[in-house]
Amino acid sequence: MRGFFKTSFCVLLAFCVSVFAALPAGFAGPGLWASAAEVVDSGTCGDGLMWTLDSDGVLTVTGSGTMDDYLSTYDPEPNMPPWDAYAGDIVEVVVSPGAENIGAYAFSGLENLTSVSIPDSVVSVGSGAFSGCSSLPEAALPDTVTSIGNWAFGDCSALTGFTFPESLTRIGEGAFGACELLTEVTIPDSVEYIGEFAFFDCYALRSATVGSGVTVLSGYAFQNCGLISVTLDRSVRSIGLHAFEGCMSLRYVFFTGSEEEWSSVDVSPTDSGLLPGAVMVFDFD
What we know:
This protein is α/β, with parallel strands linked by helices and 285 residues long. Helix content is 12%, strand content 28%. The protein has four helices and 21 strands. The protein has a five-stranded parallel beta sheet, with no helix packed on it. The protein has a five-stranded parallel beta sheet with strand order 13-15-17-19-21.
């Protein structure tokens, strides 16, 4: 009798396996079908680049070449990206390998965007590229990007984390301005230029480290930030107008050089009272 039940069970199991193997793709269970995302619209977005938007709100850029630059709605003659009509539906952007850049204002104002994927074929992010993407929580750039354009991530009010690539040499004006939830930035030694207003009005920013490539810290760079501490390399020779104005919580300035070296740094009169007001730590390593 036990052999009979064992044989019957094996036959039943084999039958079930064969039945499920024969089910059509997309079947997810009794009465359930996993519907594949459908293409909503598509077109070109540059020299050798195509874009596709599906019904799940995923915007995918494919091909090889340079992405077009666009103009924002603030320009007298705006030139909007071809997916602008679907701006409120886009939740994810996937740029496939082959794209050489992110065009100016290409993804600006995508208020429901929560995920971005950028390949290592990209070498620059254009002005305003992701500005106003107010639901984007984090972003990372590959170690091929050398330039972040003006206001590229400005007004990304949900941005809490950002990974700066070691290849980066330029951070444009206002690049991260008004990223109100950004808490910490570590600028790699490869960066040689930080534009004015680069991190202004980052109210939650508590810590900033500026790498050794920066010799001039531009005016207004960290204006109105919630900084508690800032680390500056001995390479810094000049701190521009209002660079730390409004940083009323600043308590510590860590300087990798000596006190004598610090005395030769040209500090703007607008910050001369603020920085020495904090505890200065010299020869910081």
